[in-house]
Amino acid sequence: MCGIVGVTGVKGASGVVYKRLSLLEYRGYDSAGIASLDNGKISFCKRRGRVFSLAGDLKNLHGDTAIGHTRWATHGKPSDENAHPHTAGKFSVVHNGIIENYSALKEKFFSGVKFFSETDTEIVARLLNYFYDGDILNTLKKTLPLLQGSYALVVICADFDGIIVARHKNPVIVGYGKNCAYTASDLSALAGLCTEISVLEDGDTAFLTKHGIEFYNSEFERTERSKRENPAQSAELELNGCPHYMLKEIREVPSSIIKTADAYICTRDKIKRYLTGADRIIITGCGTAYNSGLIGKRYIESFARIPVEVETAGEFRYKQPIVTKNTVVIAISQSGETADTVEAARLVKSLGAKVIAVTNSPYSELTRIADAAVPVEAGQEICVAATKSYTGQLSALYLLALTLADKDEKEGAEALKVAADIIARTIEHTDIGTLAEACARSSGVYFIGRDLDFAVATEGSLKLKEISYVPSEGYPAGELKHGTLALIDIKTVSVCIICDGELAKKSENAVEQIISRKGKVAVITNVPETVNRLKGKAEIIEIEDCGKFLSPLLSAVIVQLLAYKTALLLDRDPDKPRNLAKSVTVE
Ligand code: M6R
Question: Where would you tag: which of 55, 98, 151, 428 has the fewest CB atoms within 10 A of its CB?
Fold first, then answer.
């Protein structure tokens, strides 16, 4: 949520920031801006719209130091004025997070002063300038403790030949180059630029110059932060001939399953240590991560017979969770930075529960908080809609459930690899075009299923509404007749997932009920009897059988492809849906 990049000691710094900001647009894309520093002079440009709208301004941004921002609006509408950087006197600031007490600070320090923007960020630039006495560290000591909320701040000051970075809750990393230094909100922005990075800890500030990086802790005392390898690969950021990241990332589903399975086998022993003695499990996450938790619950309860609750992280935190030392909380997050999930994990850990992170981001805040992390090896996911990370999460949860049940994970990993092969074939050969056309023309799409198929239905619905903006809901097939059936008419499409032979007939009843109300129905199924019974009545998308527990990985890919094709037919940008951002680092 909001992408940040900064470079110092680099010729043509604003050009480098511009290029790297484009890679971060998935974090927000409603406005963008860059500030540069040249011999003590700050220049900036900022606009509503995408990063490319800044291209013409680069010629005016000179110097070896520059900072940039791509925004997902929280306070203040997307506009030129509200775009970052925000500049006051000698300071220019870009920010990710929320300054919750900005109105109170404005009233206290700048009563009657007209601000340029409606943002919560401008107060930071104003305060820095207000307290500035020629000593930047001193100025930070006076300013930062006043700020409530969360921030990753990247700042330039006309008197300092470098960049100042500060962190409170929101992630920010710094990177080491030869006679130069970098900073960014995400590792991917630095892929190919630097091989070594450090992650700022909560309360840290850092001073970046071409000579190196100095760190200060939350007490503003000099400290060291360890150097780590930057795992982000620039090759992962290429589209490789694919028209969109979403399609590229769906095609990477099989490899994400295989890599996640291999990684699990390597970390299994550490994870097992924290699972031993668990008598209750709570799974938490948001959006797609929550949906994968619904499937994780079924895996754990079926294999290990341990009770599992699944809670959306934003709700869970405020429910006064009851946990004991034998409660294991599994926090699922692709980014590892989603504020609701991170705060939920922090809370239950402080209450004594063990926390296992299931995440695609090994250096994230969630990984740092957790007792152990189950790696999802999906690689960089750029499309806002989660695809390969979802199937990676399902793979990790499947193996984790086997560990809890004392079953053979190696066999499980082999089964996942077989499923990955089937998925690779399916992606190549499935034609979803007719159904996508029907969805694009419809007034609403209902995804239904029972048990595991219902869990995939919720994800199918999220995916479709997120990138095509077609209204959609996911329902348990049996619930339809208790209300939702009233919505069915000739303009609606229902997508019924039937991949569990034992429940097939029950779900078919729901299909018949929809057909009787003149609704169009498509059935995604691996059950031959269902195909025979419904042929001619509903559109059938027949898929291979991956077995009851792994079929969600395959049916998920079908609904992902359906959402993608529908979005294209409606001329939507599937990679950057309106109003959304990839990592939601604010509450
Ligand atoms: O990074 P996270 O997995 O914590 O993100 C959680 C949700 O914001 C995310 O899954 C969101 O729902 C996706 N855009 C769905 O495709």
Answer: 428
